[in-house]
Design goal:
There is one protein chain. This protein is 42% helix and 21% strand. With 212 residues, the protein is an alpha+beta fold. It folds into two domains: 2-61, no CATH class; 71-202, Beta Barrel (OB fold (Dihydrolipoamide Acetyltransferase, E2P)), CATH 2.40.50.90. A hairpin with a 2-residue loop joins strand 8 (149-155) and strand 9. Helix 5 runs parallel beside helix 6. It is globular and about 70 Å long.
Length: 212
């Protein structure tokens, strides 16, 4: 009786090894069989390789490379904040890192309080950003002479500066040296003006000078 128990104890450690060896042999035989089969039918190689190629292409196409009408969005430095107040069509107050900051949109200008279309432009901005989380993207300057942050604003993938110009509620203005999107915004302003959209019906933007 004792010899039988001793025999079982001696063979017990080898059981997992034998089982693993059997699985390994089966796996190797399966690979060999698959390779032989694919050699007989070359189309089988494409059946195994094509899904991998498709997956890699999809992965590469989904790599961050956001563009705005052909202009690559700056992705190296941006802040995220929540808009708590809209001052007018191109200025907002934002909670940023726990502090309240005033932000002036780069590259555009909207009517002032005493000018025609002020209410419409302000309401357009309210509809786009109030209460929403926005990405604040810097061009070259950080602040203006009034201490306001100078930024492009994005809500998800919506470029707010661009939309205001497209709607005709803002004009494109060149504030040197911040000119990353000036050409884009200028082209969109021309289209909105031609169509008589938004504030263009008041000729409020027709001063003939894009620079400020």
């Amino acid at each position: 009786m004792g010899s039988k128990e001793n025999l079982e104890k001696r063979t017990l450690p080898f059981k997992p090894f034998i089982a693993g060896l059997a699985v390994g042999i089966f796996f190797c035989l399966s690979i060999v069989a698959s390779l032989e089969y694919m050699q007989q039918d070359p189309n089988e190689i494409s059946r195994y390789v094509s899904p991998l190629t498709t997956t890699m292409e999809k992965y590469l196409s989904e790599k961050p490379n956001k563009t705005v009408s052909g202009h690559q969005e700056a992705t190296t430095a941006f802040d995220t904040g929540r808009v708590i107040r809209v001052i007018d069509g191109d200025t907002v107050d934002i909670v940023l890192s726990g502090e309240r900051q005033r932000v002036r949109y780069i590259g555009i200008n909207t009517p002032e309080r005493n000018e025609p279309c002020y209410e419409q432009a302000t309401q357009a901005n309210i509809d786009l950003v109030l209460g929403k989380t926005v990405r604040l993207v810097k061009d070259k300057s950080d602040t203006d002479r009034y201490g306001r942050l100078l930024r492009y604003l994005f809500v998800d993938d919506i470029f707010i500066n661009k939309v205001l110009v497209e709607q005709g509620h803002a004009e494109a203005v060149l504030y040197k040296p911040d000119d990353q999107y000036y050409n884009l915004l200028s082209d969109l302003e021309a289209i909105a003006a031609e169509a008589g959209l938004g504030c263009h019906i008041f000729n409020i933007f027709d001063d003939g000078d894009p620079k400020r």
